[in-house]
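Priority: medium. Attachment 1 of 2:
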């Protein structure tokens, strides 16, 4: 299975970006998808996740009200719309897939089996 994250870039504080996670070699319908981020030297942090039919959406407290996760199973893509970006959002963002759809969604890294490469988001003035 493969996941491809894209959409990162450099923006000023208050700006917006939309990250995309395209999955291939499997049907998105059967996976919970999570977004995580990592700053060098720090642990990976769960940002948001979404269940197979759009249920079980969760957000980290640090991004609530600013980030929105969505999925398009037809396009095999999960999106993370990031608004009101802050310098502390700077990180490498990863998407990951959890095939165990009958358990609750989670922002815990070890619950995810498949990982894509990261995309860098830099927020600075």
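Attachment 2 of 2:
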């Amino acid at each position: 299975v493969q996941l491809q994250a894209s959409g990162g870039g450099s923006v000023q504080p208050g700006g917006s970006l939309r990250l995309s996670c395209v999955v291939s070699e499997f049907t998105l319908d059967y996976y919970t998808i999570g977004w995580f981020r990592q700053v060098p030297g720090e642990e990976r942090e769960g940002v948001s996740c979404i269940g197979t039919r759009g249920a079980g959406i969760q957000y980290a407290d640090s991004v609530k009200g600013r980030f929105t996760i969505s999925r398009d199973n037809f396009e095999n893509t999960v999106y993370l719309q990031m608004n009101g970006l802050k310098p502390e959002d700077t990180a490498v963002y990863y998407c990951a897939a959890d095939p165990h759809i009958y358990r609750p969604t989670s922002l815990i890294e070890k619950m995810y089996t498949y990982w894509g490469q990261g995309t860098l988001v830099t927020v600075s003035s």
